[in-house]
Each structure stands twice: as C-alpha cells, then as structure tokens.
Amino acid sequence: MTTVVAQGTFDILHPGHVHYLSDAAAMGDQLHVIVARGGNVTHKPKPVLSDGQRRRMVDALDVVDEAHLGHPEDIFVPIERIDPDVIVLGYDQHHDEERLRTALQSRGIDCRVERASARDTPADELASTGRIIDRIVERRC
Ligand SMILES: Cc1cc2nc3c(=O)[nH]c(=O)nc-3n(C[C@H](O)[C@H](O)[C@H](O)COP(=O)(O)O)c2cc1C
Ligand SMILES: Nc1ncnc2c1ncn2[C@@H]1O[C@H](COP(=O)(O)OP(=O)(O)OP(=O)(O)O)[C@@H](O)[C@H]1O
C-alpha cells in the first residue's frame, strides 16, 4: 500500500487542482491531502474561503481518500501522523525539493518527494484561483 500526500491552499476549486490531485493519486494507492491554514498563506493573497470549507471540498473529491487541515505551526506534524511513502508537490509550487528532502531526513521521515505534471488549460477554462477572482471582479463589480 503506497500512501501519497499532496498539499496546497485549494481556495475555490478548479480543474488545475483536479489535475494535480489526480496526478498525485496515480502515484500510489491512497491519497491524503493537507490543506494549508489561511494564517500560513503568506506567499500570495489570503484565501477567500475558510479553512474548514476548503478542507471539506477537497475531501469530497473522488481521487482523495482523506483531506486534513494543516498544522498551524509545524508542517511536519501532519506528515508524521500520515507517514506517507511519497509527497507530491504541485508543478509550480515554490518549495525547494532538495531542502524538503533534507528537512524530512532530519526529522527521521523516510519518504520520496516528486512533482506533479503541468496541464495545458483549454481556452474555455479558468484554472487559477487568482484568475477566477479577477473574472468575478470584472463581471460582477
Ligand atoms: C510537505 C508539506 C507539508 C505542509 N503542511 C502544512 C501544514 O501542516 N499546515 C499548513 O498550514 N501548511 C502546510 N504546508 C504549506 C502549504 O501547503 C503551502 O502554503 C502550500 O504549498 C501553498 O501552495 P499553493 O500556493 O499551491 O496553494 C505544507 C507544505 C508542504 C510542502
Ligand atoms: N492549471 C494547472 N495545472 C496543473 N496544476 C495546477 C494548475 N493550477 C493549479 N495547479 C496545482 O494545484 C496547486 C494548488 O493550487 P493553488 O491553491 O495554489 O491554486 P492556484 O489556482 O494555482 O492559485 P493562484 O492562481 O491564486 O496562484 C498549485 O500549486 C498547482 O501545483
């Protein structure tokens, strides 16, 4: 049984998220997803939706076995509990794979780090939370 972990903010689900999570699920038998706490999202605007709503929506996806809210302070606490064989990063996520491997080793966590593939977005789709919000502002405000 290969356990896989994916993680992200997942604010306003879109086909890019489905692609990432399907790719991650295909790398093992069981997919656990860690949903970032809004308070820890500092590299882009804070999520619009609450921590609980984002977790519930990810948990409802077919490819996901279980979605967990992230830890408020220590990102390795949920990893230690889930004990994955593989962590799959999104194709464009800012985390440095080598630094993550080193940090996992120093915590005594034995797991691989992989990257999901990118996806070509069809012309009629918006596969970006930021772009969906821009479209809403443009059309509804
Ligand atoms: C292995 C790993 C575990 C993580 N665990 C948590 C966590 O427990 N709590 C949290 O708030 N963020 C956690 N994060 C960080 C968020 O998921 C991070 O903000 C996310 O990578 C943002 O991605 P996005 O910009 O694609 O949404 C973790 C990141 C990694 C790489
Ligand atoms: N079009 C896409 N193709 C492949 N993966 C994607 C795509 N869109 C998002 N993802 C993956 O899902 C992860 C989580 O997405 P995230 O919550 O950051 O939303 P986002 O839509 O990329 O956000 P924003 O557009 O506001 O930067 C991303 O880091 C990325 O790896």
UniProtKB/TrEMBL annotation:
Residues 6-134 form the Cytidyltransferase-like domain. Pathway: Cofactor biosynthesis; FAD biosynthesis; FAD from FMN: step 1/1. It is an enzyme of class 2 (transferase). Transmembrane segments: none annotated. GO terms for molecular function: ATP binding; FMN adenylyltransferase activity. ATP binds at T9, F10, H14, P15, G16, H17, D92. Pfam families: CTP_transf_like. It catalyses: FMN + ATP + H(+) = FAD + diphosphate. Its EC number is 2.7.7.2. GO terms for biological process: FAD biosynthetic process; FMN metabolic process. Its cofactor is a divalent metal cation. SUPFAM superfamilies: Nucleotidylyl transferase. Keywords: ATP-binding, FAD, Flavoprotein, FMN, Nucleotide-binding, Nucleotidyltransferase, Transferase. PANTHER family: FAD SYNTHASE (PTHR43793). Catalyzes the transfer of the AMP portion of ATP to flavin mononucleotide (FMN) to produce flavin adenine dinucleotide (FAD) coenzyme. Belongs to the archaeal FAD synthase family. HAMAP family: FAD_synth_arch. Homodimer. This is FAD synthase.
